[in-house]
Automatic annotation (TrEMBL):
SUPFAM superfamilies: Multidrug resistance efflux transporter EmrE. The keyword Transport does not apply. InterPro entries: EamA_dom (IPR000620), EmrE-like (IPR037185). It comes from the Bacteria. The chain crosses the membrane at residues 25-46, 58-76, 131-150, 162-184, 190-210, 222-242, 248-268. The lineage of its organism: Bacteria, Bacillati, Actinomycetota, Actinomycetes, Kitasatosporales. Belongs to the EamA transporter family. This is Membrane protein. Keywords: Membrane, Transmembrane, Transmembrane helix. Residues 133-260 form the EamA domain. The keyword Methyltransferase does not apply.
Length: 270
């Protein structure tokens, strides 16, 4: 439990630290550096052999690479516009949607309605509402859902962690020209680069390695239930690190999404 909590805290802290580099690198530059760090870590762990991949193995790997990059870019762009807590909550709708869509229980239909009510509260019309930022958060949610489904396919077709590592490499390669353009147009400072690298380590390397360890001993249902804490952690870290305070309606919306996931998983049959 301590490891899972630490993994979630590292993930959200990394995103907050990465946001500190937005004024210099922008979300695009931070995501590019994060992709590089993720690729280095996953290659060291997975040790892919792409020459041995067949065409049947390559197409889901390439799709996973595209989804991986799009997910991170849309999430960090959303964080830049609407804050860490709201962006992560909207992104969390991806795995929650998959869990609820696979069920036929009336209770899960109620959980879906509860989560939908939370989203309505978060996206209610206000003079300061940033609909583009909200939309980017929903794009990240769709990408996370696709990421989960593609990972299942890659896991069945490619042995070990080779598929995820190859996808991370392809994604990092596509961001190389992006990183070069950002570096030319917005010369990076040492502090901004360190923040972006820290985001890659804390939000990619640490959660991935910790999840590998915890999933060997923790049931998948318990693991999924504990993931519900991430939107709350994101809101707390956003307030502590970035000064992004939330009002009572926003906390109510986040609580509704978290409660929907918790109730659905806690009552699920084995």
């Amino acid at each position: 439990m301590a490891a899972m909590f630490g993994s979630g805290l590292a993930n959200q802290t990394g995103a907050a630290i990465g946001a500190l580099a937005f004024p210099v690198l922008g979300p695009l530059g931070v995501v590019a550096l994060r992709q590089y760090v993720a690729a280095l870590v996953l290659v060291a762990v997975g040790r892919p052999r792409p020459r041995d991949f067949t065409r049947r193995q390559w197409w889901p790997v390439l799709l996973l690479a595209g989804v991986f990059g799009t997910m991170n870019l849309s999430l960090y762009s959303a964080i830049d516009r609407i804050g860490l807590g709201l962006a992560v909550t909207l992104e969390f709708l991806g795995p929650l949607g998959i869990a609820l869509a696979a069920s036929r229980r009336r209770l899960d239909a109620g959980c879906a309605a509860l989560a939908g009510a939370g989203v309505v509260v978060l996206m209610r019309p206000r003079p300061s509402t940033d609909y583009l930022g909200m939309g980017l958060g929903l794009v990240a949610a769709c990408c996370w859902a696709a990421y989960i489904l593609l990972n299942r396919i890659v896991g069945r077709r490619v042995p070990g962690a080779q598929g995820s590592a190859a996808a991370a490499c392809v994604s990092a390669l596509t961001f190389l020209p992006v990183g070069a353009v950002v570096a030319v147009r917005h010369p990076p400072t040492v502090g901004a680069v360190l923040c972006a690298v820290a985001a890659g380590v804390l939000s990619s390397a640490v959660p991935y390695l910790v999840d590998l360890i915890t999933l060997r001993t923790v049931p998948a249902q318990t693991f999924g239930l504990f993931m519900s804490v991430n939107p709350v952690l994101a809101a707390a870290v956003g307030w502590a690190v970035l000064g992004q305070g939330l009002g009572l309606p926003e906390w109510a919306g986040i609580g509704a999404v978290v409660a929907a996931n918790s109730v659905s998983l806690a009552t699920a049959r084995r």
